[in-house]
Amino acid sequence: MTFADQLIAFLYAAVLASVPLLYGTLGEILIEKSGNLNLGVEGMMYLGAITGFLASYLFGSPLIALAFSFLAGMAGAAIYAFITVTLKANQNVTGLTLTMFGTGVANFVGEVLKSTAPAGAVFMNEAVKAWLLPLNLGPLTQLPVVGKLLFNHSILTYLAIVTAVTLHLYLNHSSLGLNLRAVGENPAAADAMGVNVSRYKYIHILLGGGICGLGGAYISLVTALGNWQPDIVGGQGWIAMALVIFSSWSPLRAILGALVFGTLNVLHLYVPRDVVNIPGAFYSMLPFVVTALVLIFSSIRMKREHQQPAGCGVNYFREER
Amino acid sequence: MTDTPLAISLRGLTKTFGKVVANDHIDLDVRTGEILALLGENGSGKTTLMNMLSGTYQPDEGSIWIRGRRVNIRSPREAIDLGIGMIHQHFKLVDVFTARENILLGQKGRSAAPDEIVGRLQLSIDLNKKVYNMSVSEKQTVEIIKVISRGADILILDEPTAVLTPQEIDALFDLLRLMKQEGKAIVIITHKLEEVMAISDRVAVLHRGRNVGSVQTADADRFLLTEMMVGRQVGLSIQRAPMQAGNTILDIHQLKVLGPEGQPELQKVSFTLRAGEILGVAGVAGSGQRALCESIAGLQEIAGGSILLDGKRIDGLSPREIIKRGISMAFIPEDRLGMGLVGSMDIPDNLLLKTYRDQPGVLLRRKAAREEAQEMIDRLDIATPGLSTPVRKLSGGNVQKVLLGREINLSPRVLITAYPVRGLDIGASMTIYDMLNEQKQKGVGVLFIGEDLDVLLSLCDRIVVLSGGKVTAIVDSKFATKALLGMKMTGLATDKEDAYA
Amino acid sequence: MPDKRMHGGFHVVQRGELPQLKTWLYRLLAVLGALTTGGLFLLMLGFSPFSVYGTMLRGSLGSAGMQKETIKLMIPLCLTTLGVALAFKMRFWNIGGEGQISAGAIAASYFAYFHSDWPSWLLLTVMALAAILAGGLWGLIPAWFKTRFGTNETLFTLMLNYIVLYLITYLREGPWRNPEGGFAMTPRFPKQARLPEVMFPGVGNIHIGWIVMFVAVAAMFVYLRHTKQGYELTVVGENERTARYAGMPVGRIVMRTMFISAGLCGLVGMMQVSGPDRQLTDAVANGRGFEAVSVAWLSRLSPIGIMVVSFLFSVLEKGCSMMQTEFRIPASMSDILQSIILFFVLGSEFFIQYRIVRRKEARL
Predict the structure, then answer these.
(1) Which terminal CB of chain B, N or C, has fewer other CB atoms within 10 Å?
(2) What does the alpha-carbon distance between residue B468 and residue B470 come to, in Å, rounded to a whole number?
(3) Residue C322 has pLDDT above 80, yes or no
(4) In sequence order, what DSSP letters do the residues of C64-132 get, joined into one string?
């Protein structure tokens, strides 16, 4: 392989690795914009991963599989929303519990599935696989360099970018988005202006959960190619949490952030050992180091608009005195 | 006037918070085209009552009629739909939004309404300015536009003048009269008699969560209203203990303090406090009182000038060091337990706050504190179910007694006390004044930050007037008048004028 | 106007205060509700909940050997929870227990691998101290930034977890890799670096950590209730402004408390590597840092409560591994059951803090 080929392969792999991160990040951004910090991203991704996997196995339809993933993420988020929004319980503990729950359920179902399958292994329906494989857009894909990099991805990759752009427009250029941001910044102010705080929180926590679920589906159906293994999400939900900070709650910057983190994830596979010889573990560590630094710098000096929504972590009760 | 239709009728409205009855079977009517002043001391339940109209609180008992129709206002949204708009004392604005965004919030679609309102009412505001860059009066303007843009014809304003300059108050009142002529019903919550007289058509008085009656403003006189407000005939005669002024203890010189955004909170503030005197600080709320207290106590960094205790600089020292040198501060902010006490702890543990460090070793001994607490409960007649009751469960007056009692037990040389009678009834207030006078006679220098001018004039020996973070006057209260103080509080005096009446 | 509006309707208000007994009754009901839900889930899978739950109890407490395993699970959980609970008491969201355990484990392992020639008592002491120091310093980082710049500690401690986890991976794959093993693993600890075992009455020999645990529970109880430092951190947690006003050095208190909190977690790391694990692995913390957050919350930050809840969680965990062998129900059932219990208890808090009232109408 020439250097150029290698570079393209590297960037391509980076995009592959960044997609589930982007879903998780977008989902959590939407949730945090409603003023709720949900530490359950990992759990919701697990729920999406196992459900998408199961549905593709049972129904053999990619759309049904994705729909189930979305719904499973939503279901996890619904538990969280009910407990924190309606019952006003601690968001941190509820989110961590959701992660524990999602991880437990996914590993449980995965194991049951494996132990009951005839050959001791479950394979994904070929139709689903084919549908999720990188698209071939004919002449576009044939273009040199950009063809591979831009026009030869799974449909889920494009959907992630569309989601990011849509979220950006929704949050910053629609009246519903304005209301949502107000709910996240100052629920009392939004409430006084007649915005239904609980409804906004529910809707966006659920939608965010669904988006996280799609990230899970990508992991089990695309990354793992339908080959279920325990602990399949493996902390990508937590990286997404980091990315939310890294991208300072902006869906557009999340695309960039996911690419950066995806790049870091695959970097060690492509950097020649004789050029830079850093142990692989440090590459894996890098995203977290970078995020910790971003967190520090943003707390030292950053525009108020780029901080975590001010209402995050505190439940709203109108009659609070 | 009585023929105009009723905009609001409240019957038997009751609201309790835990065991505290904030509103007790309140009946109230408001007519269209009238301005009703809702008068009452702090803590008398005015805001709670209006919050039930704005949909913020749900009544436990009672009913509401709007324009003759019985309604159940379950949310602010429903209040807005009924044409009710409330301007809260603590603004409900999203800091990171512009004025325009705050106004458009919750509205369907975008409209040019805000600009139109600004033009019609000739308001001076930049709609594209972020709220976090705004002054308080700008924020209030945004709140007013918000309410008007929702087409409210029942307007409720909660203590709207507390943070405004006199000019701004005049402008606000003109605006209210204009809106009254448009046929709106307006309720203005206040505890200031002047405002009642200046703006209202009728006044309703609340006392301890009950409506104690309403009168036409034209027929009302101040003594009658005061009497209704405090619940019984009071001789407003606060004793001023004779002064044996000693040497200067505290010397504030050219003090400058900056706020979190770098805006000046205090500028060129200079005054002295002598042993054995009560020095009052008068000013509209938000004129720099908090910065003054906190910088003396070492809680806020100063940007210039100096603070001297017995001729030695104490600015820059840690709060701990300042406490050791004998400066005690009893600062009661709006949320009463905000600074000074720990609500979830009992009286003995709260008494330990400033003395626990003097105990030897690593262990905390509570025995002495429990004895001190018991002694204080008996001496100051503090009503509490028991020694281990968390202080947040005590009533306002008792909380104040605990706080002031603790500070006095430290035998301070300088006692700073801010709004110590806020929310207290007259009886409890008198106890507090007595405690301060007693300290004065012991030779303590007392700095008294107050809000009621009558109290300031009769209790204090001298009064420093703050306006917009500057000292506009230092007067001897024997010769000062309320009118003079009022004028100085509005900052009309020039900087160099060192007015003595 | 619709007719229903004529009636007062219901709304939610904050309760004054509920008697202690009643609050615990609500929580007990929540746990029962959770076990019932878990039972229904088992029923759906075709198992009898009673026999499964029975097996769990037997599998965790049925014999001395099983009790021993349960206690071995409980030791790190209880100690980690004591650690994070201390920070929570100060309203400092330390969810970095995971990383602090790992940091302690690394420091302890260093001495185990490179100073195995020291006498055992010295080696173990140094390992413990190094672990406390390493864990504590790792916890000081977010504390310092929090006091200096107000950096969000929830997210920061979370990030720090992963940094140190990958540090273990690096050591395991690189400098500390066992040259004789086929896999990228660290070598086993030498004998001197293993915790001695002490007789646990009625159960048998368990590594000395169980004594440390009981001492820590008692010490924490005294520390919070009867020391000046415990008083200070409680005031800072309840009302930081009052703490500053009273002249407390808030920054120093936050740092000191976090050092103790994280140091305790670090000690757990040492006890895991030199107790049950006998080597440094990626799984030294194994999610306990997160689990501890839940346990701390469930036990309302009371040291005795922490001991009780961490014991019950360990019973659940051990019971579920028995369930796996006997019923072939995957052991991840333990995660599911724990989280259902947590969900229910989290939800039950609402009924402790709020009540629903119906409004009485008045007449015009």
Answers:
(1) N
(2) 6
(3) yes
(4) HHHHHHHHHHHHHHHHHHHHHHHHHHTT-----HHHHHHHHHHHHHHHHHH-TTS-HHHHHHHHHHHHH
Kindly give the pairing relationship between strand B248-258 and strand B84-87.
unpaired
ipTM of this predicted structure: 0.92
pLDDT of residue C234: 95
d(CA B438, CA B422) in angstroms, rounded, equals 20
Sign of the Cα pseudo-torsion (A304, A305, A306, A309, in order): positive
Q: Find the range with the poorest average confidence among A43-57, B110-124, B380-394, C71-85.
A: B110-124
Check CB contact under 8 Å for C95 and A90. Answer: no
Q: The domain that contains A173 carries what CATH number?
A: 1.10.3470
- The CB-side HSE value for C21 (13 A sphere, CA atoms) comes to 0
- Pair of tokens at residue A220: 């089990």
Distance CA C219, CA C221 (A): 5
**Beta strands B462-467 and C197-200, pairing class:** unpaired
Alpha helices, DSSP H only, in A34-61? 41-59
Q: Which one has a higher pLDDT value, A216 or B120?
A: A216
A301 touches chain B (CB under 8 A): no
Please tell me if residue C360 touches chain B, with a CB cutoff of 8 Å.
Answer: yes
**Helix (H/G/I), strand (E/B), else coil: C157:** helix
Res B110 pLDDT > 60:
no
CA pair distance B158, B138, nearest whole angstrom: 16
pLDDT digits (tens, 9 = 90+) for B331-374: 655 445 567 888 889 999 999 998 898 899 899 999 999 999 99
* Domains of chain A: total: 1
> What percent of chain B has a predicted confidence (pLDDT) above 70?
90
The distance of Cα C136 from the centroid of its chain, to the nearest Å, equals: 16
**Residues of chain B neighbouring A179 (CB-CB closer than 8 A):** 105-106
Beta bridge partners of B474: B464
pLDDT per residue as tens digits for the range B130-141: 998 888 788 888
DSSP character at residue B268:
E
Contacts of A191 in chain B (CB under 8 A): 56, 75-76, 92
Q: Where are the domains of chain C?
A: 1-39+331-364, 48-328
Whether the predicted pLDDT of C152 surpasses 60 = yes
- H or E segment to which residue B429 belongs: helix B426-441
8 Å CB contact of C245 and B60? no
Give me the residues paired with residue C13 across strands: C355
Q: Domain residues for A163?
A: 3-320
Three-class DSSP category at C338: helix
Q: Which residues of B touch C231 (CB under 8 A)?
A: 349, 352, 356, 364
* Chain A contact set for C174 (CB, 8 A): 279, 281
Q: What is the pLDDT of residue B136?
A: 78
What pLDDT does A302 receive? 66
Long-range CB pairs of B190-196 (<8 Å, 24+ gap) are: B190/B37, B190/B38, B190/B39, B190/B159, B190/B161, B191/B39, B191/B40, B191/B41, B191/B42, B191/B159, B191/B229, B192/B161, B193/B39, B193/B222, B193/B225, B193/B226, B195/B37, B195/B161, B195/B169, B196/B37, B196/B39, B196/B220, B196/B225
Distance from C-alpha of B467 to C-alpha of B453, rounded to nearest angstrom: 14
Q: What are the start-end ranges of the H helices in chain C?
A: 20-44, 49-61, 64-89, 97-114, 120-149, 153-173, 209-226, 228-238, 240-245, 250-272, 288-298, 303-327, 333-353
Distance, CA of B462 to CA of B392 (rounded, Å): 34
Give the architecture (CATH level 2) of C48-328: Orthogonal Bundle (1.10)
Q: Give the angle subtended at the CA of C101 by the CAs of C96 and C107, to the nearest 5°.
A: 125
3-class SS of residue B462: strand
The token duo for A75 is 């279901």
Neighbours of B474 (CB within 10 A): 17
| pLDDT score, position B501 | 32
Q: What is the pLDDT of residues B241-279, one digit of tens each?
A: 777 778 899 999 999 998 776 678 899 999 999 999 999
